[in-house]
Each structure stands twice: as C-alpha cells, then as structure tokens.
Give the backbone structure.
Amino acid sequence: METGFLQEQKVLEGDLNSENSHQNSVDFLMNWFRKQSIFVLAYGTGCGAIEMPPTFTSRYDAERLGIRGAATPRQADVIIVSGYCSYKTLRRIIRTYEQMSNPKYLLALGSCTVNGGMYWDSYNTIKKLEDYLPVDMYVNGCMPRPESILEGFIALQKEIGEGKASSWQKYEENYEFYRKNQEAVLGKKVEPSYEADWYLYEGGL
Amino acid sequence: MSSTLFIALPLLFGFATPLLSRLGKNALAYTSVLMQLSLLGLALSLLLAHSSTTVELISIAAPLGISFVLSTASLLMVLLFTLLMTLFSLYYLFQRRANAYANESKFFTLLNMLLAASIGLVLSSDIFNIYVFFEIAGISAYILSAYSKTALALESGLKYLLTGAVASIFLLFAIVLIYLHVGSLNLAVIAEQFQLLPYNVKLLISLLLLIGFGFKVEVFPLNFWVTDVYQGSTSLVNALFSGIVVKAYLFVFFHILYLFLPQGEFTLFLLYLGGVSMLVAEVAGLRQTNLKRLFAYSSLGQVALIFVAFAMQNIQAVQAAFFIVIAHSLAKFMLFLALASLEKTEQNMHIDRLKQIDSPFLMVMMFLAMLSLLGIPLFVGFVGKFLLLKSLAVEGMLTLLVMVVVASFIEAIYYFKLMGYMLHKGTRSEKVEVSLGEKMIFVSLGLSLLLLGVFPMSIAGFLQNAAEVLLDQTAYITLLVGG
Amino acid sequence: MEFSLYGLSDIVLSLKVTALANFFALLIVLSTLTVLFIAPNYRLKRSFYLLFTLLVASLFLIVYAHDYLLFFIGWEVMSISTYFLLSFTLSKEALHKYILFAMASALSLFVAILLLYSTQHSFLYEDAKQSYLAMSDGVQQLFTLFMLIAIFIKLGTIGFHYWLVDAYEESHNLFTPFLSAMLSKMGLYALILFVANITQATYVLAVMGLLTTIIATFKAIEQESIKRLLAYSSIAQLGYIVTVLSVADGMGGALYHALIHTLVKLLLFINIAGVIYVTQKEKLSDLGGLIYKLPQSFVFLLIGIIVLAGMPPLGGFASKFMIYTALLDAKYLLLLAGVMFSSASAFIYVYKLIYGIYLGHPTHKNLEEVKEVPWTFLAPQYLLASLLVIIGTFPGLVIPYINRILGELNLTLLSFETIQTLITSYAQYNGFVVMGAFGGIFVLVLMMFMLLRSKAKKPKNRFDIAYCAEEPNEATHLHYGYSMGQELKRVGLIHLIAKNSSKYFYDFLAKQMQYFSEVVRKIYSGNLLLNFNIAVLFLIILLLWSLK
Amino acid sequence: MFSEIKNRFATDDVEVKRKGLYKVVVKHERLFALIVMLKEMYDYKTLNTITCTDWIEEGHFALTYIMTTLKRNETFMLQTMILREEAHTKSLSYLFKQAQIMERDLHEMYGIKFEGNENLKELSLENWVHTPPLRREFDTLEFVNNHLTFRDGRDDNIDTKAESKRLRAIKKAEKEAAKKAKESKKAEDVQ
Amino acid sequence: MILFDLLFMLLVAYITGFLYYGLYRNITARFQRRLGPPVWQSFLDSIKFFSKEESISHGWMFYLGPVIMMSGAIMTLFFIPLFHTGESFKGLSSYGNLFLVLYLLVLGALGNALAVGASGNPFGVMGVTRGLSRLFALELPFYISVIALISVSGSADIVCIAASQTEWNAFAYPLLFIAALFSFVGMMGQAPFDVVGAPVEVYSGPASEFSGKFLALLMSQSAIFTFAKLVLMVHLFLGGASGFVELLAKSFGLFLFVIAFGAMYGRFKTPQSIDFLLKVPTSIAIVGLILATWS
C-alpha cells in the first residue's frame, strides 16, 4: 500500500481518469463559458494562501486563463481551501460555500486537506475535507507551488468543460451526510443558522 | 355743574366714610360702587349728549379762583378713570367676602380721594389746583401703596413718599417762579404770557416742571422708584396705579406742555427722552423674574411709548396716544387683576408659579392682555402702536421708529417668555378660583380689547376730536380768558 | 376691492384676486385638504382646529391682500396662531425661539412697510415701486434690509434658520407638512411680491440663496432625526428659489419650483408622519428595514426623493431644469454650478432618508411587527404622487398658468408649445418621451431579465448576507447607513460648514443682551440717593445736548 | 528587596537566574499581595504573561506570573501552585487590564477558573465541550482517532513516542551490533 | 425607423462596451507586465454569470435595482446621439438635452443604491456611502466645464455643442477639458477615485451582494454605460463624430487615456478624493470657465 504523498497522488489521478459523462449542446455551451471564466474567492483559509498571490499576479498571471479573484462569495465560482482547516475555519468555509451560487466548485490545496498532512494528530484540525464539503479537485504538496495550482485549475476547467465537475450537485444530494459530519465536529447547536439554503429558499422575486 | 360733581362726589364720599360705615357692614362698599356707577353714567350721558369740542367750563371766582374745563379730551380721561374705578370697585366687591382689606373705611376713603384727585388733575385749569390735586393723589397713593403694612409695602410707601415729596418741591418751585413772572396761576393766562418770558426763565421753569412731573410720569431717569413701589403694593392697587394715576399725570403734563410751549421747542428732546425711557425699561425687564416687577417694567415701557406719542405734538400722534392709553389701561388693569387673583392664595409672584397654575380661563385672559400690549393685530394695542409708528414714519423720525420697534421686540421677548411658562407642558397643581363676577369683569375687559381692535373706527372719531381739542391752545385760552 | 382702515381716509386697503394670489391660494387649499386628511388619526383638542382655521384664514388674507398693511396683519396673525399651534408639542426653548424670530420678522416687516408708507402715503402694491424710488439711498437700503430680514426669517434662509429646524422637528406630525409646505411659502410669496413689485436685490438674493442651498444641504446630510433632515432640506429647496429669483427671468422657475416643492414636501412629511404613526420612532437610527412592511409608503417616499433630488422623469426635474436655464440665461454660470453642486449633494441625504427608514435592517424588534400605515395616510400620498408623475410626464402642463401670473407681473412669458415639452431659450425636453422611454425600457429589460434561466432565490433569513464569512445575528450592528455622510466631516471645507452654526452667534447675542440687561437693571435697584444723582445728571446732559 | 520578600511572604530564597531575571516560588494565598507590592513599590508595572504548567504527577498547576520593570530592566517570575482538582484562583484583571485575556486563554486551555474575570469566553476554540486540550490527561491522539476519520493508507498516525523509541532501539541495536562486529573484527585483527 | 436606430445603438454600445472592457483588462495586464486575458474575456464573464444556476435576490427592490440601472444606462445612451452630423443614429437626443443627460448619468447610481440598501449588506451600503459622498465632488468640475460649454455654444443640445466646435473644445478650452477629465476618470471608476468598490476594504462595495444574473446585468450595464459616457465626452470636447471610425477612434483614445491614468495611480481615500476634487479640478474648472466666458 502506498503511503503519504503517493496516496495523495493516487487520489488525484483517480478522479481525473473517470469516464466522460453525456451532455447536450446547451449544457456544453454553458459549460464552455463557465470553463472560460472562473472567479476565485479571495479567501485565504490556511497557510497555502501565500501561494495564491503569485498565481494571480504578474509572474504566473492566472488571468490569461480567465481566472480572476472575486471578493465576495456571491460572485465567486471557485473557493480554494488552501491548506489545513481548523474547526473554526471550517465553519466559515461551510458558510461561505453555501453562500456561493450554483454552480460552484471547491479546490483543495495541500496535503492537509487530503489527509491531515502534518497536522494529522491535531485535535483541532479536520483530516479529510471531503467528509464535510464536496471537493472537485485536490492539488497536493506542502505547499503546492503556483505551477501546480495552475495545473489544478486547468484540470478543473477540463472537468467543468466536460460537465463532470458536479460537486455542488453532490452536496445537495448528500446533504444529510455532510451535515452529519459537520455537526460531529462543530457541535449540535451549530450554525449556519440559515440551515441549508436551497431547502428553504422561496422562488421568484 | 357736572364737572364739579366728578370731583366733589368722590371727595365728599371720601370724607363721609366714617358716617357711612356706621350704616352697616356692607353699606360702604355698595354705596361706593353706586356712586362710581352714577359718575360713569354721568360721563357717558355727557359723551352722548354733547358733540361739540368743549363740553363745559366751570369757574369759581375766575380768574384767580378755581376753574374746571371739561373738554372732549378731559371727558375721555374722566370716562376712562370712572370706568376703571367702577370695574375696580366691582372686582373688589366680588372678592371682598374672602379677601377684604383691613380697616375698609379708610381704604374706601383713599380710593375715592384718588379718583377725585385724578379727575381733578385732568379737569383743573389752574396750576395751583393742579398742584393741590397732585398732592392729594400723591398722598392717597402713598398710603395705598403701604396699605398692607408688610415690610416691602412700607418700604415702597416710604420710597413713594420721598420721591413724591421731591417732585412736589420741584413743582412748587416752578409754580412760584411762574407766579413771580406772570402774576397769575390760571393756565390760560400763563399760556398767553409764557412765550414772552426770557429764555433762561422759560428754560428753568420748563426744567423744573419736567422734573416735577417727570417723577410722576415715570420718565427714564426719574422712574427708579416705580418698580419698588409696584413690588411692594398689592396687585389690586397696582392696577389703579398703572390704569389711572399715571395716565392722569401724563395727561396733565402734556396738557400744560401744549399750553405753554405750543411750538414744540422741546419736542426732539422729549421724544428721545421717551424713546430712551422705553428702551431702558424694556431692557431692564428682560431678566426680571418677579411678575409684579416685570409688569412694572412693562408699564414703564408703555408709559414711555405714550410719552413719545404725546410728545410728537400732532393730531395723529396724540390720537395714537389716546389709543395706547386706552389699550394700556385696559390691558394692564386686566393683568394686575389677574395677578390679584393669583395673590389671593399666595404672595409668591415668581414667574415659575405660572407653570403651576391650572386655570385656563385666567390664562386666556392674560394671553389676550399680553397680545394687546404687544401690539398684535386684531387687538386695540396694535391700532395705537400702528398709528404712532405711522406718524413717526411720516415725520421721518426713523431712528425713533427703530428705537420703538426694538423696544417692542424686547418687550415681546419677556412677554413670550411668560406665555411659554404658561404653556408649559406638565402637571399643574395650583387651582385658582375665579368667581363668576370676576370672570364677567375679565371677559368684558378682554372683549373690549378685541372689539376696539377689530372696530377701532367706533371710537377713532372721538379720539381724533379729543386730540384736536387737546392740541388747540388758542381755543383753550379763548375759552378761559374770553376773547 | 378697496376700503379704508379705521375710518381714516389716508389709509387705503385693498383685497384683490390676482393670478399670483390664486396660485398660492390653490397651494393653501391643497395643503390644508391633504393635511386634514390625516387629522382623524390623531386626537386633537378642539382649540387646535380653531387655531388652524384662524391660521388658514390668515394665510388667505396674506395671499389676497393687495396692500402691505393687510399683508402685515395677516403675517402677524399667522405668526401668532402658528405660535399657539406649535405650543401643543414644542418644548419651551424651541417655542420661544420660534416666536422671537417670528416677532423679529413681523416687526422688521412692520418697519419696512412703514418706511414704504412714509414717502407716498400708501400701502398699496401698485404704489410700492414709486414709494421705493422716492426714498433716499440710505432709506432704500434700510428698507431692503428690513424687508429681506422679515422674508428670510420666514424662509429660513441660512443664518435666519435657527428657529426653523427645532420648530419642524418638534411640531406635531400633522402640522409639520403644513409648516413646510405652506408657512415657508408665505415667505416666498412675500419675496415674490418684493422682487416683482419693488426691486430685485440681485446680489443679496444670489449670495444668500446659494449659501443657503449649499450649507443647508450639508447640514441636512449630518442629521439623524428625520424631521430635522427634512427641515434642512426644505431650507435648501427654498434656497434654490431665492437664488433663481435673483435673476431677471427667474420668476417662472421660482413658481414652478414652489409648486413642486409644496407637493413633494407634503408627500414626504405625510409619509414620515405615517411612519412615525406606526412605529413611534423619529430617528433614522431607530428605524430601518420597513420596506417589506410598508411597501406602499416606500414607493411614495421613493417618488418623493426622486422629485426632491430633481431626477428625471418625475416633476422635480422640470423645475430644476427651469431654474438652471434661467440662471444660464442670466449668465450666472458659477451660481448655476453652485446650485447644481448642491443638487448633486442632495443625493446623499435623500438616500440616507430612504435607507434609514425603509432599507437595511430593522434596528428594533418591534419594527418587524408593524403594519402598513392607515389609508388616511396613503390617500393623500396617492394624490400627490400622481400629481408629481403627471407633471413629470407633461411638464408643460402648468406653463400656461405660470404665464398668466408672469403676464400679470409684466415679466417675460415662458415659451409654450405642447404640454409635453418644456422649452427654454437654451434647450427643451419632452417629458412624455422621457417618461415613455424610461417606462418602456424598464419594462422590456425587466421582462427579458425575468425570462433568464437563472432562478432568483430569496433567503428566508435576513442575516444571510455576504458578511466576510461571519454569521451576523440580532446583536450585530448591520444598519450602517443611517449615519451616512459623517466621513464628509473629514473634508476641510465641509468640516467648516458642519462645525459652525448660527447658534453660536445667537447665543452670543443673547448673552450680551442679558449682560446689558443686568447692567441696566442696576438703575432700578432701589438706591434712592444714587438714583437722584444719576437722574439729575442725566437730565441735564440730555437737555444741554438737545438744546445745542 | 529579596530579604523583604523572603521575610514578609515566607518564601524560599529568591533565585537569581541571571542578572535581571529573578524567580521566586510563593504560596498561593500570598501571591497577590506580593504582586501588588512589586507593582506599587518596585515599579513592576508590566505583566508580561501568565503561564501554566501542568504537574499532573504532583496534582497541581504551576502558575507563573512574569512581570517586568522597564526602569531597571528586570524581570520577576512569581510561581505559585494551585490544586488541579479545584483549578481555581483569583483574577488579576483589576490590577492589569491585559490579565483579562491571558486568563481567558488559560481558562480555555486548562480549565482554570479565575474569580473576578467577567469574560471567560472561549478565545480561539469554538463550542469546545471536551476536556480542556492542554491538560495533560487530554490524550490528543486518542481524541483524534475517536472523533475524526482518516483517509485509508495513512499508516503514520500512530504514537510517535513509541515509534521513535522503537526506531531508536533498532538504531541502537544496529549500532551496538556494528560495534560488536567492529570489536570482534579488531580482536580478530589483533589475533 | 427610430426603433431600428435605437436597437442598433444598443447593439453597438453593447459590443463596443465589452470590447473596450476586454481591451481595458488586456492593456492593464500589459501595464503590469503580464499577458492578460483574451479580449472577449469580459463578455465570457458576463455570459457565465447569466448562465449561473441560481442568483440570490433579497426582495423586489433588490431585484428591480439592476433593472433600473440598466434602464438608466440605456436611457443615457439613447439621449446621446452617436453622430452629430447626418440624420441617423440620433437616438432620442432631440427630445432631451444635456441637463437631462447629466441627471440620467446618476439615475443608475440611484437604482444601485436602492438595491444595495434593500440587500441589507452593510458593506454594500459602505460602498454606496462612499460613492454618494464622492459623487458631488466628482460632478462639480464636470458641471462647471459643461456649463461653460453650454454658455459658449449657446445651447444645451448635445448635437449643437458638438457641431459648434470649429476646433475641438479640448484645445479651445484646455482647462475645462482637464477639469472634466478628472471627473471623467472618477466617473469611469478608475484610480485614483475608485474607492467605491474596493474589494478588500469594503468587500467590493455596492456589488457585494449581487450574484448570478444580477451581476451579469450589472456588467452589461457597465459596458453600455461606459460607451455612452465616452460618446458624451467625445461630443462635448473632441469635436463630435460623424462616422463610426471617427467615433471609435476618438472614444478609444479617450478610453486609453483613462486606462493609462488609472493604471498609474494609487487609490485615494474618500475624504482625500473629495478634498482633491473640490480643490484642484474645481479651481481649474473655475479658471477655465472665467477664461472661456470672459468676453
């Protein structure tokens, strides 16, 4: 059995190699637009956030791929969980994620999000992000360099284009599961006080 | 004959009080009211019967003896005095059961003496008689002022006496000088010859007269005693002082002035004296917190306004002066009666008390009186002030105009302060009882303020007539001395 | 109708029905009716209605009087009846402040009309011009000074507005619309008479008007109390009119704006009265988030503020346009820039008003339970709002009426073609097209927008906002904008306006007056000997001076 | 000063760690008097920090208050013991404002109650209901294994101490084996 | 016919606006020594937002706000003629005037402010506050310049102002042009006056609560509005335009200048920007006005 880094690599590649799903032409067109324009929430949740500024500025220039920052979750398509995730941060990430509008994608950076990384025995840090939020793409490394982040983005774009990046649907479908896990670490009385939005939202104006 | 009645009746009544008081407990009061009512009736009948300028001339041993002239002008004053005195007596009658004065017979004596003296001042055409009535009015006023015998009242009486004495010395000195140079005490004779006197003598006599009367007509530097007297005296008596006594002095002062100096040599001086008086009085009243003193300052201001109006020495202004005299007499009378109603329960006259008083009727009446005093349109006060200011504007005395308006503004400041106190929102604890009779008096006074304000034309002609008569020196001389 | 006063033949009085008088009388009728419409919601004493009747009567007297004496009498009665009307709710200080300014206004008007009388011995409007010309230069200036003081106090022009703000704030909610819509208009009426009949004090009006608009606008931005804010807004709006009256052809714009301002201030104050009626709160900081509770009121306030800000396509733009082109015509370019500047600044307080009351979050629990205001409040608002919309669509509608007034005052007429267009020498615009285009585009965009696939979803919870990933709750301070504009104080020029107040000047004046009074009172302290000396000395000095 | 402290507060000798760094162990009930004295009379105006050491074997917490005076550039460490079971002491926040947040931290991490401190809310944790995490009876590894899921294949989530001991033992054994081999080689060489 | 005109104007504005925005991002990228996105990136962004599955609406006022903004932008566009010569593409300009356009410029801001207020997001309101506080200072120099131009050309009609220029107003009245340019930079939301939507300070300000199709509408609005403002400036100062090439050349030149200006400067705080605008550009404008209308 592979351990550590090798195992992370396996997770990464396993996701990438799944088969194509069918999509009609409207979906294809829309996915193409979504692929071309990715707004990333400017929210540094862990130490990996330090790698994001070079990714977006002159040196690596993510904007040439249509990737740019957005300040608020309302406008963002992608949230990057950059590294270890303490309970306190997790709560904010969940709220932010739920405030983003569909379709939305989650990119997880660093070993900590995969299996706890160097915080594997910390009482205060979650070990497996996908138990709490659906992850579209892991970028491993501690920390991943901007090159790998860009590579992750390109892979994400590819998935979006193929209509495979559907974590947000997964989240809606398996909400009970995610919520159970979230409550397990964040406590029963835990917010988000507005519950899961799409249950309660009223349609229309 | 009637003019002597105006003087003789109250005078006689005054002397007859010891006798009348034996007739019964209430006899004195009722007879007094009756007597005054009859005088009022007489005056009214005279007013209705005669429309000519001179109503009556009565001479006893002319030209050196006593003579009275009842002209339209003096009739107006007599009417006003008798009316106010009647109302006063009625008011006293209504509140007498609860708040009678101690030693009532003396009080009635003084009251009627005061009336007689005031009317006498207005009617006399003889300078020595004027002096005599001057003294009678003064003495009864001193005693009335000190009547309640509290420390303040005694102080005020004493002050009144002292200043009155000084005033009469000056007046007497003036009379002596006049007699020395003219050889007669008859006003007409003096008036004829006064112009011919050397300038220095004229100046001296004028100055002495001015100082003598100045104390009594409450003109600026000589009116320092007024506030103390008003504060010390009871509000009822104050109503008389500001309603009757001052008006009588004012009238006689300007009567003499018009006779002696028809060309108006001192007009400018007197005008500015009046203007300054008004301004000073109003400014001084600005911070006053004692109601009686405050109204005293207001009286000073209003009297100064009348002073200015008379000093203008033309018909319109004198007409305006009569309007203001009426307006002020009625309104101040009303205000002091209201204060008297307040005084029944408590002597404290601090303005804070107004916040506590729970009597809408009294308040409305006070509002009416105050608004009239401020010269708000629809009240008679406005008519007088408007006419006066109009004639000031026409004469081009802009400085004086502005002076009067500024003084009015300052007056408005403290009157509206009082109104603000009365409109104070909060619990009101102090009930003031006003009996039906008292209410009638208030209502009649208030209504007359309003009616005269809305329909001033009803008396305007009469007043103009009076003004013409007062200003006509030659007619007066002709009347007295004969053509 | 002419008659004489007091049986004195030298004072001729006159009442006359003129187009100008009718214009203002119409405004009086409109204001009175709309204000009385909301009256059943309040329990008022009978004396209130009595005084109110007296007030309205005095207003009619002012409007229909054709000579300055009757005008003055109306003016005084108006001041006094307003005093007693205000006394129902005002604090002692505010009341005293009001009446002192009102008396100052009345007395200076008195002096002015007496000065006018002194030359030609007539109070009639027709003779006013001649009387004015017959004065000497100094007296002319004095007259203008007194007249303008009287008018400015009623208008609340900056420097003379000390009484106005408190009176508006504390007056009864029923009475405030009337105060703003009508009583200040009487000052305007006096000013129009002054400008039309006597002289156009160009520079004074221009400077005072501009200062008023700018300073009052920035003062309004500072306020936290709704009624204070609107009071300053009233001052500023009247400032526009004062400014435009300073130019030769400004009368049309002034009248137009007077009409619009009356309508909009009635609308706004009635709206506010409704809000205060249901919430019992008067501060912007105590309100908020009422839009879904009072949707109709919100729409009316929106219409009100759009008009107040002078935005197309509603009526506010028409009057602003008239004012601008009048100033442009007279080549008062910097003045125009100043007026436009203050008009642009007005956006802040206008937004602050609507935000503080209706938008944002409720600041109190009980705000979440209020219901829509009673129909008695809504009915007049429907009327006023529809009037404003109609005027916005057909801006030329009132031009013929204004022209009638202008013709009567011998001024240049405004050009008029159709009721849809507003034409001035510099430009024209078609209100119907503007309104139609806006409506059409709005509906089209809205329809296309609603057809889009993306579903609009509404959060159940008002706390679901993007709040930096935090979870706000009841205790979180979310109603931010009611204190809007505070940061402007950090700008030097605006700080200067915010810091200074006419209060300091009047306080100083009052202090000096009291000090002076203290000194003068010493005379009456009762020290006889001293007084005798003073008296005699004074008399002698005065006598010598007067005889010299 | 030292003698005064010793006499008045019945402490041991003040230990001078180096120049300007002193330490004294004081009884809990005399601690606050000593702090007041240091603050008021000897200008120790600054409370740097409050630390806690968990002496689980002896059954008490050692609270150390570190105070500094900038006047003489000296630091004083006052150590006092409180019982683990009670874990209760008085707050210092009325003397030093900054103590409030330090105590809040200690309360969160050790469960020590500070009487008189108004705000003992959690500082960096949220909704923590388990044993205060820095107490030594709190077994982190056990907690993690009980509460959190791990991804398969992670074989290093074992007790590091035991592991390192084992590794060290292996290394030592190897070393010794090598040594023996060397020695035996030497012996052979000698032979 | 006029409907066709209007539709065409809208189309031109939409395409050009997005093209300009793409170029803006590209050019800014070059300023920062990077490659930058493709030219059509803004368009892609907008379509992407339109195609979002859901958008959060905070009630009807919030829903209508962007619509009002869009209407305001289109109104502004329609009341500004594309060309000052010829008959076509005048839009509705003959029914309006410059004052109307000046007010229409802020109509969108009002819609935005209302929507943001209705959203209940305090950061949004902070942005609106900054915007409104800055607005009047921003407008003052522009107003003064415009007034001077109206006074000089004798008409408040945009066509007349454009046609009356024998030489460009920018050269005839350079001071007015400079003052107006300062305002224009602010109106375009460029540095140094871009404090309204600062992403980090106030969470992107007014836009903070807009998602999905609302944001997409805002982006389209901004593209149309930008074009309309550019056309207005061209007509007022750059001698107007009589053909597409001229219009695009002039407006792009102006746009390039604004971009360059924005790329070079840092950001003013709100009071700083108000202070600056009330002092420097306003003084320049006043001097310009006096010089322009001296005779």
The mean pLDDT of chain C is 88.
